[in-house]
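fyi for ur records
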Amino acid sequence: MSMTKKEQRLRRSRQTRVRIALQRTARLAVHRSNLHIYASIVSDDGTQVLASASTAEKEVREQIGVGKGGNVSSAALIGKRIAEKAKAAGIDKVAFDRSGFAFHGRVKALAEAAREAGLQF
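which gave:
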């Protein structure tokens, strides 16, 4: 029985989510599609999104240009944005949840930009 690419990714993400839940900290969840990258900070009990940023937002699209959300520089911009929004919401420590995506390229760019902007994880 072979798993689809998506099922494999979700399977990889499960263990991370379990580990993060034990830490009782807010979780910085990242989702990557071909065209966009999304980041949201989910509360420690997993019930609400405290802050979110994505390349699908109107303001961001105006900055990066339409259809340019799938590259490393836009991912870095989202990393910076999510860190700023988190600080505004009074969050400085999070657990990074790459949702089964490889820590490479866009996901890595987002993480590093968020760290630079002062989010700790």
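The helical segments are 5-23, 58-64, 72-88, 106-116. thats all i got for now
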